[in-house]
Amino acid sequence: MKLAYPLIFFIALSFGCQNKTEKKVNLTPVSNTRFPNTLVNKKFTTEKLIGLTHDESDYVLSNYRLIDTSMAAEWAGNTIKFIDSTHFVSAYQAWCGNDCFRSVFGRYQFIDSLKVRFITDSITRSGECEAPTVYGGKPPLDLYIVERPDGSLQLNHRDDQSHKH
Prior knowledge:
Blueprint: H1 4-16, E1 43-46, E2 59-63, E3 77-82, E4 87-93, E5 100-110, E6 115-127, E7 131-135, E8 141-147, E9 153-156
């Protein structure tokens, strides 16, 4: 009898407690389609800094190119540099040091082939408007890319392609 209980326990454990084959449900989320990043490693001039404010005006991005290096010492204006496939810096640059220098550091992501989401991570101010760095707090900025006939890009708050009849 001493052997009967362990034997019954062993048989019950071996055969009665086996995992039953369950129908497996695929819980893997549908992966997002990756859209080609046409901005990576490019630099543009802009009329104003992207991500500094969230007003409804559009942005024009012109290719940043200097005719010669002597112009670099005298050029002043706003630029946006797409550092890599996810980060950007939009900054005011000037050759003199007595000005207000603002920079917006953030991330960007293509939502679809023509729509880009900008997320402001921080804003710095130096020079004549020096102030502590401001971190986050701004909602994402979704803009649509439209290529203009002159080769520049326009970033619009709405998709003009879908509003054409």
